[in-house]
Every structure is written in structure tokens, then in C-alpha cells.
Amino acid sequence: MRLSTKGRYSIRAMLDLAQHYGEGLVLLKDVARRQDISERYLEHLFLTLKAAGLVNSSRGAHGGFVLSRKPAEINLLEIVRACEGDLAPVECVTDPKTCARSPRCSARDVWCDIKDAVEEVLSSRTLDDIVAEQAKKESGTNNMYVI
Question: Could you give the domains of the chain?
């Protein structure tokens, strides 16, 4: 299972907004520059994120984007679902009727476990968490020394 560019870039864009939370509206061109993502591509991503209620926007000369809630209140699963939809690795996980074997298929149980595990990881991490992790990485304090 692999996230698309849309899902990965959406998390990076939301991380950027979270890093600047409380500073007011953030310009799309600034997010594009800092995250090395096409501004045109970000326009499409932010339309999706806005429709999902994850960001608010303001138009005009002083317009931009801001998170709709505090970074600690937005988890990664919300972002990924908004951009990727359902995270099931195969169709029968979401809709068992698509396969007559679903009720007696042990492979389907594995696919369900995979979906549940991915959703558990993503729902347990908030934007606040990854902002803190990013700050550690940028400061170099995330190093581990073993003697």
C-alpha cells in the first residue's frame, strides 16, 4: 500500500501550516517555497483540505490559509482520508459484497488488519506531534548515541 503524492504533500502542507499556527494567514506561495511543492498543485490540495473542513481561507491581497483547528486537534488520518479516501488495501475490506469469498476468506482478515494498523498509526499522530518531531530533526537533538 502506497500513499499518492496528494496524500504525502497534503501532510507536508498541513505540517507547514501547523508550524506557523497562531501567526495568522499563511500564503500559498510561502508553503510552496518551504515545502518545495508546486503552487499550482497546492491550490488543488488546499481545495480538498478546505472541503474537508481542515483549513480555512481568506481571499484577497492579504489572503491565505490557516488550520481550522489547533494542531493538537487534527490527526494525520483526517488529512490522509480527505485526500486519499478509504485506506483499504483491497476493495473487499470496505465492501465485502464485491467478493463472494469474503465471509470465508482468511486473506481478507489480513487486509482488514493492515487497514486497521495503518489507521491506528495515523489517528494516533497529530499535527502537533509531527511539528515537535520536525523541530527535533531540524535542531539535531534527535540523535542517539550508543557506547
Answer: 5-85+126-136 (1.10.10.10)
Q: What angle do CA 134, 41, 31 make, to 5 degrees?
A: 35
Q: Is 35 exposed, middle or buried (0-12, 13-18, 19+ CB in 10 A)?
A: middle
> How far is the C-alpha of 92 from the C-alpha of 72, rounded, in Å?
33
Nearest to 14 by CA among 138, 115, 129, 118: 129
pLDDT tens-place string over residues 5-17: 999 999 999 999 9
Q: Which three three-digit cell numbers place residue 143?
A: 540523535
Helix (H) or strand (E) holding 18: helix 5-19
Name the grid cell of 113. Answer: 488488519
